[in-house]
């Protein structure tokens, strides 16, 4: 499969590489930095405790931005906590924010709470793009549609499917549903369960604009993409010789 909507040589420009598991080591954070540099990725997404470290390490790579994660992964912080985190991440140098919405409020049909929570972060971001994470694995289709509509109304730049921590993956059908709901009023980011190139390309064709992918899955996807068009893979400094041969 090959999507007509993407240049595989520039696949990094639609990919956010993430290290957002609980047990991420500094070795993996260094691998994140290496991957985004090697494949010219558009974004790096670390956890807050190492965000400044990643920003400093990517200071010589201005084409890659760093996302600050807000209320990750549960989304159940108070709005004031989310606003504080958003402002802190921006003060560190983050150029985008990934915010988990109040999932419990959405499922409880407390739509004003969901809207006010997102809007407060969008306002605090003061023009910095905000991606609202719906965590679709816990939602019905109707809840996905309502959450997407609320996020767009609150002024987000992206509607994002998930954190990657949930029990079910994002699917192509999910992207179709969100795209049908919001049209071109916001961009769409898929995260959680995107582990192969064909799935990624199918999601591009369904209307997805950006992907949040962990370091191992991203390497597999990049390897397949480069292989299809005959581009040699870059050597990555933070990987051993054997890793470079096998990733």
Write the layout of secondary structure elements.
Elements: E1 15-19, H1 26-38, E2 43-46, H2 51-57, E3 65-70, H3 79-92, E4 96-100, H4 103-107, H5 111-125, E5 130-133, H6 141-154, E6 158-160, H7 172-182, E7 187-191, H8 197-206, E8 210-214, H9 215-229, H10 241-246
Parallel strand pairs: 1-2, 1-8, 2-3, 3-4, 4-5, 5-6, 6-7, 7-8
| Main β-sheet, spatial strand arrangement | 1-2-3-4-5-6-7-8
Q: Classify the oligomer.
A: single chain
Mean pLDDT reading: 94
Biggest sheet record: 8 strands, parallel, barrel
Number of strands: 8
SSE pattern, N- to C-terminal:
EHEHEHEHHEHEHEHEHH
Number of helices: 10
Spatial gap, N to C terminus: 21 Å
Brief overview, please?
The protein has 247 residues and is of the alpha/beta class. Helices cover 45% and strands 15% of the residues. It has an eight-stranded parallel beta barrel with strand order 1-2-3-4-5-6-7-8, surrounded by eight helices.
């Amino acid at each position: 499969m090959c999507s007509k909507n993407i240049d595989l040589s520039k696949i990094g420009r639609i990919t956010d590489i993430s290290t957002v598991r609980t047990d991420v080591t500094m070795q993996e954070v260094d691998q994140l930095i290496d991957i985004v540099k090697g494949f010219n990725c558009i974004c790096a997404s670390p956890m807050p405790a190492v965000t400044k470290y990643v920003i400093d390490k990517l200071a010589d790579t201005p084409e890659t931005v760093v996302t600050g994660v807000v209320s990750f992964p549960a989304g159940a912080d108070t709005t004031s906590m989310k606003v504080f985190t958003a402002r802190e991440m921006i003060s560190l140098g983050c150029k985008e924010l990934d915010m988990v919405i109040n999932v419990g409020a959405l499922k409880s049909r407390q739509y004003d709470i969901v809207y006010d929570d997102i809007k407060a972060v969008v306002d605090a971001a003061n023009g910095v793009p905000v991606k609202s994470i719906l965590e679709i694995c816990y939602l019905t289709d109707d809840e996905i549609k309502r959450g997407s509509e609320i996020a767009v109304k609150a002024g987000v730049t992206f509607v994002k499917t998930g954190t990657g921590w949930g029990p079910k993956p994002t699917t192509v059908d999910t992207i179709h549903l969100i795209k049908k709901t919001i049209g071109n009023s916001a961009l769409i980011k898929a995260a959680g369960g995107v582990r192969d190139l064909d799935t990624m390309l199918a999601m591009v064709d369904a209307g997805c604009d950006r992907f949040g992918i962990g370091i191992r899955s991203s390497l597999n996807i990049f390897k397949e993409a480069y292989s299809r068009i005959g581009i040699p893979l870059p050597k990555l400094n933070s990987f051993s010789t054997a890793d470079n041969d096998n990733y």
